[in-house]
């Protein structure tokens, strides 16, 4: 696959076949992802790659606690809890695309709740990768930035091998559950989760291509003349 095919073809995958993912393939993908740049080459990231029983326990624990209304315990700053303006518009935009694809009506609270629960179950993916960073680097904005770089590289590397993934915060809403069942030590901060597996081609949301603002909107060119 060429670079453009990977970048333009990749999209978040939220429906997977039950087929297992070989450990060697995940190792290959992680090795590719870790070519990502990082501040001063600190490589602050670590990965807890979970499947089988422990992952099922995490799914159950997340679901149970979220349904019980336990407030989220993410280990990173989330900023304003509610988006406004263009950010809210984009959030609603992709949600509409996903709900339309899934046939979930705006007023169908049951189906909407089902969709949210799916996220807490890591979209029933066969594998979940928890991205953590070394706590000693806590406080530097470079560290989460570096985790973002490696996570993006990971989902692109996965795509290049035919695997699908979705980076998500839903899987780590209840960090103590993840910490316990994945055996994550205290010197690691939980940053993000990535659901990983073989895309289910029949799952409607998998075909959603989300929108992007234009280069014109995003970029300011300085010193280029007209
Ligand atoms: C930091 C981050 C957190 C995300 N959290 C979630 C999530 O909790 N649930 C979800 O369904 N998608 C989540 N996503 C996926 C985004 O919704 C998705 O990347 C975005 O809409 C663009 O779509 P695309 O990945 O298909 O290009 C997250 C992505 C990132 C980068």
UniProtKB/TrEMBL annotation:
It comes from the Bacteria. Keywords: Oxidoreductase. InterPro entries: Nitroreductase (IPR029479), Nitroreductase-like (IPR000415). One of its GO terms (molecular function) is oxidoreductase activity. Pfam families: Nitroreductase. Residues 7-198 form the Nitroreductase domain. Belongs to the nitroreductase family. This is Putative nitroreductase. It comes from Gordonia namibiensis NBRC 108229.
